Every structure is written in C-alpha cells, then in structure tokens.
Input
Amino acid sequence: MLASLLTSHVTIAFILGALFCAAFVLIGPIAGGISDGLRDLLSPLGLFTAFDDFARGVVSFSGLVHFVSVTGLMLYLNVVLIGRRHWPVQAGGYRMGIHHGARAAALVAVVIGLNVILGRAGVRLDVTAEGLHSLSDETVQMLSELDPERPVFIQAFVSPEVPESYVQTRSGLIDVLKELDAVGGSRVQVRIQDTEMYTPEAREARDRFGITPRELPDLRSARSGFTNVFAGIAVTCGPEEQVIGFLDTGLPVEYELVRSLRVAARADRAKLGILATEVRLFGGFDFNTMQSRQPWAMTEELRKQYDVVQVQPQEDYPDDLDVLLAALPNTLTQPEMDRLS
Output
C-alpha cells in the first residue's frame, strides 16, 4: 500500500513494493559484503533473523519487537501519505513535506536503534511440545555463574550444506548455540560462520584453531560420494582455549559445548592423577607384543577437563592431587596396594 501511495503507475508501484520488501530480506547479505561487523550490527533488522526463531518454535521478544515495530512504522508512513492532500503548504517556514520527512527519518532511526538494542535481549519462550530448544536447568545455572568481566567467546565454523545423515546434528548444534547466546547474555558471545572449502572462514578455522573439514558420505544423488563438512567449535576465554575439531553424530551437543565452555571459563583446573597399572591408560610400549599403544580415549576425554598426570604406584603420591584414579588396582603389588589404601 505504501508504494501505491507514492505513485499512480501500477507497474512502478509494484517495483517499489518489491524493493521495500527486499530491503528486509537482503540487508544481511549486503551488510556482510561490506564488513562482518556491519553485518552483525544490522542482522537483527533482517527478516530471516527475526523469523528464524518462530520457524523453530521459539517465540522471542526480539522477534516480536521487530515485526511490531516494522508494522507500526509502515502504518505511520501510510497514514502520513494518505493525509498528504490535507497538508498545509508550509509550517514554521518549511514545506510540510520536509517536516514529515524529518519525522519519518527520526522514526526510522528509533526503530533501527530499538531493534538493535532489544535484539540482544534473551527473553524467549520454547513452545515446542517436547521442549526441543530449551537448555537444561544445570546449564542455565552454570551460565548465570560465569563472570561477566571474563566473557566466553564461542566461534562455530559450520557448513551451510551437509549430507542428509548430518542434518539433524547440524540443526541441533545451531539451536544450542543460539540458546547459549540468548541465555548467556553478555557472559557468552556466539559467532556462527557459514564455512565452505577454500573460503576465508575455512582458512581462519584451520590457521587459528586447527579445525579442518571431515569427509562424510553423501547419498543424496544416484552417484554417491563424499562431502567435506565443517562442524568445529572454538571456545575461548582470555588465554584459555578449547577446540572441538568436529562434532560427531550421536554426541550430546549441549553436553559437549557446555563442557568446553566450563573448562575455558575456569582459570584453574582440578589436577587428576592416574595411577600406572597394567591397564596402561596413558599408552606406551608393550614389551610383550613389541608394539606401541595409544592412550585410551577415556584419557583424552579427561584431559579436556582436568590437568591429568601419571602417578607411579611405587613412589609417594603428589600432595597437590585433587583426585587419584586407579584402574584395575588388583594388578598392583601388595606394597603398592598398601600405599593406595
């Protein structure tokens, strides 16, 4: 309707209407072509950013503000143009068109500022029957305990197109990241980057965090093959850094992200000692088979959260240990067992 009030030509009005609608659709890509900072600043004004939450079953306060403010702005402009025939020639020495133009420009600035500010609000309601997009109470409590003076930065490098077998994992990752960003407020800053091969984003992921793509089978066409997929997350807090090189299918997304976030935000890690037994959790050389053994996967997982050290059973235990783990202690000698007990 606004375009029809600007011209009496039907074709021109249609083109103007399409341009008005395209402004809300293309504001993100156009701003991203100028700079990433401008894209992050103006993306809350775009249609897709505001509608994405509703499409996922989440009613967000920022989305409601966006649609209500844009609707109010357009209604105001329509009312002004409808009453144009009743405008006086001048008001206060200026043409009436200048008055209304200045008012409209001021109102546009207010709408932009309102959306940018309230776009950072984390008020949102998950209305899905299963609560698919709600964080656990433990996660919410952990986020509230983070120090706002030491914010945690989460950078996710995710491929925009993935094989069908990985679609659910990618969707779950994006959902959890957005919820962490909304609930964490100023304590957690999330940046999701669409990453494809041979792009600046892929180069940044490789050079800064060692994140590389993984080949996944792609069965979407008759000619099956493999597709390079990025699904890496880097969590940084000051000098601390935790990197998930690739989020495998089947892993609990929220657990993996929150664990990395907790480790990065905590300056001092608990010290975990693993007692050297016949299990050889640290790996090493096996003289029976004359082969080298790799560390157990459990050991690698523990290293992500704790300061892990190996403790020799025949020596005195370090005094600074928080926890001592003994796997298969029945392989110890009697003096070593006495020291353990």
About this structure: The chain has three domains: 2-124, 145-265, 271-340. The first helix runs from residue 2 to 6. The chain has a mean pLDDT of 82. The chain has twelve helices and 15 strands.
